[in-house]
Amino acid sequence: MSVASNAAAPSGSRPTAVAVHKDESPQHRRDVARLGMWVFLASELLFFGGLLVAYFYGRLHWPAGFAAASRHTDVLLGTVNTALLLTSSAFAAVAVAACETQRWRWVRRCLMATAALGLAFLAIKGFEWHAEWTEGLFPGPGFRLGADVAPPQGAELFFMLYFVMTGLHALHMLIGVGVVGVMAHRALHPPAVEGEVDPDDADEVTSAETGAELRIEMTALYWHFVDIVWVVLYPLLYLVERHS
Amino acid sequence: MKAGMTALTKPRRNRSPQWRGTLRAIAAAWLALVALLLISLGSAYLSLGSGNLWIGLGVAAVKTAIVLWAFMRIGEAQAVVRLAAAIGVFMLAILFVLGAIDDRTRPADRAAWSHPTQIAPLVTPPAKR
User: Fold this and answer.
1) Which of A42, A62, A236 sits opposite B87 (nearest CB)?
2) Is A42 close to B88, i.e. CB distance below 8 A?
3) What is the pLDDT of residues A117-169, one digit of tens each?
């Protein structure tokens, strides 16, 4: 039954969300959702891409300034945060695999672990920003690199890019933590299948399952993308000329 | 299925070999990612010139590939999905190439970058009493 035929249904029969999806094959819904999500992620890639181009322009033109500035970032906290994100991505991947095999206890626990690690990442990042702010590393009239009141050219530009890149990434993380938390909550309190559904009708239940699986799979794809962004940012922001 | 049971409470089996295999694959990918993180960190403390940048980017590229294949399962995705992802990367490459062309073909006598500095005020404010 299509949406149009639902609209033309007799007044006595109540159209339901499940009924709308009944004749759409679960595979078709999966394909459309995955394609939509990947197109969104491709657009997000270009969103961060502009900042990456600006970064490489600055690094090529003022390598000494970028190196000096990068050495003032906290490499230990950056590394810990990278490990946290990689681990959270692994939990998200397990959640998707568990969802496909209907292991809902695994889904709940893995999604909660993903959200908790994401929150830990944000807490560490917040601590890092606070330390950098008090150290005078925030771009502006009071900018300085440690005791160096006349920092090399490009150092301030590095920290401008640093705060913009990590800030935008943290915003994506915040959204991700929220969505993962909602997914974990939904898995904790399973919603009843909406509408007038015959519980013995396997097709209807499959449709609802597919919806839950899809939402979790799409959320995990977004989370992995945010992880990839950080994987690229980590060497560019924390590991420039560390040996000097 | 008994009446009233929802989609999320259906009883399922546990501990199938396939499930354990999936967990092992994800754990192996995670271990590889952590190992690559440590390689990236360690290499940054070696004096390798421009090699430091290339190793950092190379390790990041390998880690990205692992996340794409092991976690996002792009290898199992439909061709049109892979195409959408490839177009994103292609457009990013165009952005980099055009940026590089612009940078390399600018006149060589362009003005040097300088810190913004505060110039002296044109009118001296009256002294406070």
Assistant:
1) A42
2) yes
3) 999 999 999 999 999 999 999 998 888 887 766 788 899 999 999 999 999 99
3-class secondary-structure state, position A145: strand
Interface of A with B in 117-156 (CB under 8 A): 153-154, 156
**Residue A164 half-sphere exposure, CB side, CA atoms within 13 Å?**
15
CA–CA min distance B128, chain A (Å)? 24
Closest CA to A191 of B4, B11, B7, B10: B7
Say yes or no for a CB contact (<8 Å) between A154 and B113: yes
Contact B91 A42 (CB under 8 A): yes
| Structure ipTM | 0.82
pLDDT tens per residue, range B65-91: 999 999 999 999 999 999 999 999 999
The residues near B56 (Cβ < 8 Å, ≥ 6 apart) are A235, A236, A239, B40, B43, B44
